[in-house]
Amino acid sequence: MVARTDRVTDPAIIDALLLARRGQAYYSRKLAELGDAEFDEPSLLPGWDRRHVIAHVGLNARAITRLTEWAATGVETPMYESPTQRAEEIDVAATLPPQALRNLSDHAAIHLSVEWRDLPDAAWSNEVRTALGRLVPVSETVWMRTREVWIHAVDLGSGGSFRDFPPGLVDALLDDVARSWDRRRVQEGLPVYAFAPTDRPGREAVPTAPEAIVLTGTAAQLASWATGRNAVGVERAGGGELPEPPRWL
Q: pTM (2 decimals)?
């Protein structure tokens, strides 16, 4: 008999699944607040209308489902055939009628949640390959999806805000961005950045280099800036022009 509750028993994965599903519920609420005619309007992501954001989030759920099935069966099923195929698939899906896009969003999210639910403990450490070519345990797909649903709920432009995010999620986003920049610093010549959230006692920035650029603001404001979104409220410590953030992913 198929399990009706998550089979995984690792408390960290259980907590991560809860956050991902809360994010899906938040995204679904923000999507439901849009009328069908509003799908054709620009999103908060440059170059994408809302249709493209909705299509992307739905297709991302399908792609992560493929990785989860890979971990369960051992049969390699990549997220996408290629970056070109991914982009073309989003462009095509973005032309669907509004109700079809809503159905894509709902059905793909449910399918992913079920695949996570039925994945046994032993399979969560099985490695899969992300669209960027990294080999990761399938447990990392939960964080991959968490980022997508929470942040793209804001990108829909229907009232979502980083201020709505759970504090632990905001902190995890800042840590994720910082790790990404650290990994690529030498290869891409990135500056050294340090975050100094004004609403996080004990998380003050500790610059690791004298030339570090220290950025202040609330944790939510810093996360918004660092992920390439709104820069309102973020300032450079000591004054000076606020830089454009490097790419995150």
A: 0.95
